[in-house]
Design a protein that fits this description.
The protein contains seven helices and no strands. With about 130 residues, it is an all-alpha fold.
């Protein structure tokens, strides 16, 4: 009765990646989005808004790592453009309306929270006192 029972310990499985790695995402061509983002540098705020909105609502619906990074930059630039154009109220519509909805639906909740917080911080810094 004093014998110890041998118990097989199951092998520890590696934690699954938090996001599935899709090989197509790594090869995703986003040069058109990058070109659009770069094209706004010498434009007025009013001219930037439709260009940046088109980056976020591009028809190919790309949300790989590169496209997501470019779209994140577009959200920040769009918020700044609204502030420069004295349309601070449009930032709320930007975050809650159809412009950012597809982007937020395709990134993690943590990324969404980070972007929303950064946009609100920027608006607070740019808003008139």
């Amino acid at each position: 009765a004093g014998e110890k029972m041998e118990v097989d310990t199951p092998p520890v499985a590696a934690a699954p990646p938090s996001e599935p790695v899709n090989p197509e995402d790594e090869e995703e061509d986003c040069s058109d989005l990058a070109t659009l983002l770069d094209s706004i540098n010498d434009k007025s705020a009013a001219e930037k808004i439709p260009i940046l909105s088109s980056v976020l609502n591009e028809p190919a619906n790309r949300y790989g790592p590169t496209a997501s990074a470019l779209k994140e930059r577009a959200v920040y630039a769009l918020a700044r453009a609204y502030c420069e154009d004295n349309h601070h109220d449009e930032v709320v519509t930007l975050l809650t309306g159809t412009t950012c909805a597809p982007f937020f639906a395709n990134v993690t909740k943590a990324k969404t929270a980070k972007v929303v917080r950064a946009v609100l911080d920027a608006v607070c810094a740019l808003a008139p006192a």
